[in-house]
Amino acid sequence: MEKAQSFHGASQENQGCKTFFFNMLSGYHSVKLCNWLLCNSFYELDSLALNLVPGIIPVGPLLSGSQLGCQIGSFWPDDSTCLSWLDKQPVGSVIYVSFGSTSIFNQQQFDELALGLELIGLPFLWVIRSDITNEALSEFLDGIRKRIADHGKIVDWAPQEEVLAHPSTACFISHCGWNSTLEGISMAVPFLCWPYFTDQFQNKSYVCDVRKVGLGLNPDENGIVTRHEIDTKIKALLSDDVIKTKALKLKEMAKKSVSEGGSSLKNFESFIEQIKH
């Protein structure tokens, strides 16, 4: 873990934007060969961007893992014990922390995040993938688990849609991957945005500056998001009724788009008809 880069910083953001730009360019010629270009979004959420891509078909939000009774797109087995733990927490009290399948920390950043979550004094559910832990980090996590046993829970992987939909979940500290962003939007959960690379920085800007359903976590001069930054932003987010209201409106828009007569459902039905013919 000592060799891992800091989780967040201006230089990393610039590099992420460059990588995203070149990936888009490299995929441009492949896109031109497609008969259909479907995307996991919905028109009411992202109309300005969608209008820039001729022929794109938004059919999202693509949720339904829990409805189908099976894991959809999970990289690791879900730890469903976190759901029974959530059942025991007060409504709107739990901070959910998950950074997806690729993000990593260095040890100092792990320390600051753990201390920040303890500082706020609210129950939290923290997903820490077992594939990124070494011996030193495992010992660190054992100590954290003992200290937070009365108000926190750490799991390897969580059934995220169900966690975000749970009435106890108050906010989502997220890397702003697009799937996670859509899931949070669809469940009306306010965001604390902590992007790692590529499109996650654009998604953060969209969440915080365009739709205004979250706040960004900013690193200090050493590229570390401190415990005090985490504590301050969580308190600000949970006390912001405007953000909560906007999040509820986005949830209704998302639900309407995949309901009868909604834009995404119409697009999907049209796509099926085109395939048939």
From TrEMBL:
Highest taxon, organism lineage: Eukaryota
Keywords from the UniProt entry: Transferase
Pfam family, one: UDPGT
Transferase keyword on record: yes
Record-linked InterPro entries: UDP_glucos_trans (IPR002213)
PANTHER family listed in its UniProt record: UDP-GLYCOSYLTRANSFERASE 72B1 (PTHR48045), UDP-GLYCOSYLTRANSFERASE 83A1 (PTHR48045:SF21)
Name assigned to this protein: Uncharacterized protein
Originating species: Lithocarpus litseifolius
The organism's taxonomic lineage, starting at the top: Eukaryota, Viridiplantae, Streptophyta, Embryophyta, Tracheophyta
